[in-house]
Amino acid sequence: MEERPITDWLPLTKKEVEKRGWDELDVILISGDAYVDHPSFGTAVIGRIMESEGLKVGIVAQPNWQDDLRDFKKLGKPKYFFGVTAGCMDSMVNHYTANRRLRSNDSYTPGGEAGFRPDYATTVYSKILKEIYPDVPVLIGGIEASLRRVTHYDYWADKLFPSVLVDSKADMLVYGMGEQPLREIIRGVKSGIPLKDLTHINQVAFLKPKEAALPEVDSWETVSLSSHEDCLVDKIKYAANFKIVEVESNKWQANRITQQVGDQTLVINPPFKTMDEVEMDRSFDLPYTRLPHPKYRKRGPIPAFEMIKFSVNMHRGCFGGCSFCTISAHQGKFIASRSEKSIMKEVDQITKSPDFKGYISDLGGPSANMYKMRGKDESICARCSSPSCIHPVICSNLDTSHKPLTEIYKKVDAHPGIKKAFVGSGVRYDLLVDDFNKNNSDMNHDEYMEQLITRHVSGRLKVAPEHTSDATLRVMRKPSFKYFRKFKEKYDAISAKHGLKQPLIPYFISSHPGCEEVDMANLAAETKDLGFQLEQVQDFTPTPMTVAEVIYYTGVHPYTLQPIYTAKTKEEKQNQNKYFFWYKAEFKDWIRNRLTKLQRPDLAQRLLGFRNRNQKY
């Protein structure tokens, strides 16, 4: 393979900057992830967008924050600003399990090594930059900044934090997917406007002195949240705040949000309307090398890249609105889809990779089967403030046709360089159950399922019913488990028809708000009856900017302000988790004794059977 010139990547060192003939950089990006020049990695996307707008951009990837801070100085001082991101994950989710145990690896670091980014990376990086270069603006973004833009509960510290703007001392924050606000910011600074004065741009947040007037924008109305200080002493006010933030985040024509924090006012401008196809293509068609920077070759593969290097992301956003999920909080509930032309162009690029063997690992998105789904009458969407388009029922205005997706699958299948293209992303199964989804007028869901099962399943298919208790599922904003049963019947019938043995792999969560211990025992019994022996299970983690996090901290649902039980102690959480493993000998006595104590011997019988003198369990 002919080696690519180092200038094909954005520069990581002073020497690489000089090779481009540059004396100065316009923007320097600081990232908690290793630099992978691929459209699935936020730092690469942001860097390439800036480059497309004519800026000279450098990257400092995973700087050492514990030495003399030379990494923060090595590229010098940028002309316009520093851009800071913790990376593709919140640094605390990246570092710790649901039990607050330190993880031993980091998928965004060469060799999967842990320890190359700090806790609360956005804040740590930004404060360092402000100390070294007090006169250079700092713009923060990415999922960590986005989900911590307002007063939020931090599970790992077990307390409320103010907006990340307060502790990081950054000048401005971009929330959500950053392409649209970033292009506006770049145009502003290039025209000579200081970053701190670009307060009229959608989808940014900033702090201003309490007594200073709000910037005037004719089309914006303003709603106020309870202050950070009020939230510290009143959990109900914190819960009520969340509802306002979530509703405004999911509107096309949203209001500006303000919150008092000490002697400052936090201002969160309304989001942009979801990117259209042209904008999406523009972002994905930038000149990525699709490879990690060559400096990492001797340090081992980057696990997150290895997982997606032969995959194609076809859309963004999710209209599910699940209570525990941050996808819609960051990417939005409206689906932003790429054109078929852009997708097929990326497939072509993948087939030309020297180590490609003909297998695409994923044709997907946050939910694999939401491609090109949107409102039939978008004027209705423009007035909607619901956080979900499919809970408690599927909106009659939602076009849930799987036809465009089925056609993409067929075109990729027909590509001469492709042997197989798999769907590795989770499939939203409830969209495929006609009893739940009444919008399937031309039976295209059946055609999609046939295509998916016969051509695009790599041994097994991932779906996420998440629970079996209807009460818990309502809190989760997920459909009744009966629809999963119906989907499984349909899946099994198509598999049998074609002689395929491709098991369904269902994902479930323990200790979610609204889930009692008996609900977990019942989940184990119901899944046992369906023939599942669960191995991959997830204990609930309260992540910022989710309904479930608010319930965990406050004890009430933010929309009703009514109490909801949540398992919080280590013992309560472990008790729920143990029922997943009813088939393991070491848990059987515990489960029988526990269910007897809970006066549910019927569940013990379903899980473990009768016990007699000749049978231990």
UniProtKB/TrEMBL annotation:
Record keyword Coiled coil present: no
Cofactor annotation remark: Binds 1 [4Fe-4S] cluster. The cluster is coordinated with 3 cysteines and an exchangeable S-adenosyl-L-methionine.
Domain Radical SAM core, residue spans: 304-584
Cofactor(s) the protein needs: [4Fe-4S] cluster
UniProt key word Metal-binding: yes
Keywords: 4Fe-4S, Iron, Iron-sulfur, Metal-binding, S-adenosyl-L-methionine
Family, as annotated: Belongs to the UPF0313 family.
Name the record gives this protein: YgiQ family radical SAM protein
Biological source species: Aquirufa aurantiipilula
Lineage: Bacteria, Pseudomonadati, Bacteroidota, Cytophagia, Cytophagales
